[in-house]
Amino acid sequence: MLAAAGVAATVGISGISPAAAQAPAMAADAATVSPVVIVDALNGVLGKHMARGSNAKGSCMAGQFEAAATAAAITRARMLEAGQRTPLIGRFSIGDHNPKAPDNAKSVCGIAVRLDDGKERLEWIFVSVSHFFAQTSVQFAGFLQVRAPDPATGKMNLEAIAAF
User: Fold this and answer.
1) CA 20 to CA 31: how far, in whole Å?
2) Cα separation, 154 vs 163, whole angstroms
3) What is the pTM of this model?
């Protein structure tokens, strides 16, 4: 993780210290970065446009979720009791930053689902990758920053990327 001394200086994202970006996996209550910092870092790598920072193309859904009778065997969530109907919203997406990307583009696909009955809320987010390289928002933003092209040369710093 950014072990090279020269790399740490390239990680200075607004809101993220170089030391925080270099930190190994952190506990769930560790410092995080704001969504604005993440979107700015995505735009630095992918280019800025007037759509979402990531997963720009997608379709939304809304409906009712009804838990199976067997759900109670694996959860205590009230909204997943047998026969319970809960409002659902969700989104299917293509991982490209381009809102005009073709549906058959080779890209990460995702689905996000929220169940919310006004008393409790459950959210799931799935992406079609075998693993995700960052365990925290700080690590994710730091990696995006090292991938951003140098404004002077327009080229990525391959050494910084490899060191990450």
Assistant:
1) 8
2) 20
3) 0.58
Residue 51, pLDDT score: 67
At 97-138, the pLDDT tens digits run: 777 777 777 778 889 999 999 999 999 988 888 777 788 888
Q: Is 125 exposed, middle or buried (0-12, 13-18, 19+ CB in 10 A)?
A: exposed
Instruction: Give me the residue label for tokens 């909204």.
Output: 79
Which parts of the chain have pLDDT scores under 70?
1-30, 50-56, 96
H/E/C letters for each residue in the chain?
CCCCHHHHHHHCCCCCCHHHHHCCCCCCCCCCCCHHHHHHHHHHHHCCCCCCCCCCEEEEEEEEEECCHHHHHCCCCHHHCCCCEEEEEEEEEECCCCCCCCCCCCCCEEEEEEEECCCCEEEEEEECCCCCCCCCHHHHHHHHHHHCCCCCCCCCCHHHHHHC
Structure tokens at 19: 């030391």
Complete domains list, the chain, with CATH:
1-32+136-164 (no CATH), 55-131 (2.40.470.10)
What is the rounded CA–CA span in Å between residue 81 and residue 67? Answer: 6
What is the 3 state secondary structure string of 39-58?
A: HHHHHHHHCCCCCCCCCCEE
